[in-house]
Amino acid sequence: METLGFMAAAFSPMNLLLAVLGVAAGIFIGALPGLSATMAVAVLVPVTFGMPTEAALIMLGAIYTGAIYGGSYAAILVNTPGTPSAIATTFDGYPMAQRGDGDLAVTLSTLSSMVGGLVGALALLTLAPLLAQIALKFGPVEYFWLAIFGLTLISALSEGSTLKGFIGAGIGLLLSTVGVAVVGADIRYAFGSQFLLGGVEIISALIGLYCIPVLIDLVATPSAHLEPPEEGRGVRFNESLGLMWRSKFNSLRSAVIGTIVAILPGAGGSIASLVSYSEARRTSPRHERFGHGEPDGVIATESANNATVGGGFIPTFVLGIPGTPPDAVILGALLVQGFRTGPEMFTTNANVTYTFIGGLFIATLLMLPLGLLIGRYAFKSIVSIPKALLVPSIAFMTVIGTYAIRNNPFDVVVMVVLGVLGWVLSRYGIKASPIVLGLILGPIAEQGFVQGYLMGNASGSVLTVFFGRPISMAIIALTLIAVFYPLWRARRDRIVKNSNEEPRHEH
């Protein structure tokens, strides 16, 4: 009962106002390419220093929640993920928008985000101490295999050739080695440039690889960017509810996957959305439609990446280890307020913790009315904007967003170069998603491999370190399934197709 009393404090007028403002601001910021959830939270941290701790956490949590959801707008409407966790949303969201179902995709994203957010917040409320113990069992080797698992997923899910997907992932891994090594501090591929010492900035690369090819294609094609919606369709709420009910197990499964992945520090929404997308595609009777505008793809990715919000706070609060980059910023705000993370977050400081969890539930529920309202006008506005205005506007936002990350003009150069490279590679069937994931997961894989190798040398058996732990073997098994299952299914479908065609040839 005491816990419910603490959570009820989140319904005070001030906390409700902060939640509304935070969610709305987060949606707008997350929808703009380059202005990520991490940046949104970081910008607001100084504003919260004079607030009570509960109010500060509620506002930061609300803007984080809104920004993760807002990333789906750009992913669906302009094929540019507003946040890295929305990468997989582009796979089916943008094809839906191209055929005139962008309003349906945005509504599905809103409902899925709310379901995922509620599951993540519920896990934070009920399972935090228990699930945090699982994260303690992950060492460097497990993170190495987890990164490899993420790479094989995105490569296997690539459109067209699986080999080209692996080539894209390899390019991303090469880009991740630029600059100072994560272990050992060796300088690699900097070519004497001080700007490259810090490596290729991930958000700059994401903006370049996703935005620039879209801008080039918009300029190169005379047709309209998106099909205008039929008059009077609105947000298509009833139709979306029907699809959500049909895919209720997909949505809940994806939300659980997102929560579990978020508990592993450093994994984040990118891996969560890809794992859930892969699982949804594997189990769907409509698996051949994935990548061509299948609503289940949007439901899976958005349920998963929004579940990472609540799930990521579990290791942050219990272990003091941020589950995602925005969690690291919020952890810093907690420390500034004089709070220590650990078991006392749920005992001595239970009033702050449970009030914040109540605020997280409120922010997640607010996504539905705010998201539907903003999404309805966002879709109609973007469809009605002429190309002569849309292209320069997006180009301006990409430049400003890239420069604002580190106030470094060289990041803009890297963004443009990678964007042109991405456009050229896409002509040959190598998509941007494997490259971006290679860049994101490369440092995780490298650090885990080097540390595991050093541990193996010290213990006298490198193979035992990498292949002798149960969790590692489980991840390796999942990795092999991710690689060979699409190949096996393609071969099976080819055999079935040939067997169905043989009787016609006889006649």
Automatic annotation (TrEMBL):
Record organism = Modicisalibacter ilicicola DSM 19980
Q: Is Cell membrane included in the keywords of this UniProt record? A: no
Q: What is the lineage of its organism?
A: Bacteria, Pseudomonadati, Pseudomonadota, Gammaproteobacteria, Oceanospirillales
Q: Which InterPro entries match?
A: DUF112_TM
Q: What protein am I looking at?
A: Putative tricarboxylic transport membrane protein
Q: Which UniProt keywords apply?
A: Membrane, Transmembrane, Transmembrane helix
Q: Which domain of life is it from?
A: Bacteria
Membrane-spanning intervals of the chain: 16-45, 104-131, 143-160, 166-183, 195-216, 255-277, 313-336, 356-379, 388-406, 412-430, 435-454, 466-488
- PANTHER family per UniProt: TRICARBOXYLIC TRANSPORT PROTEIN
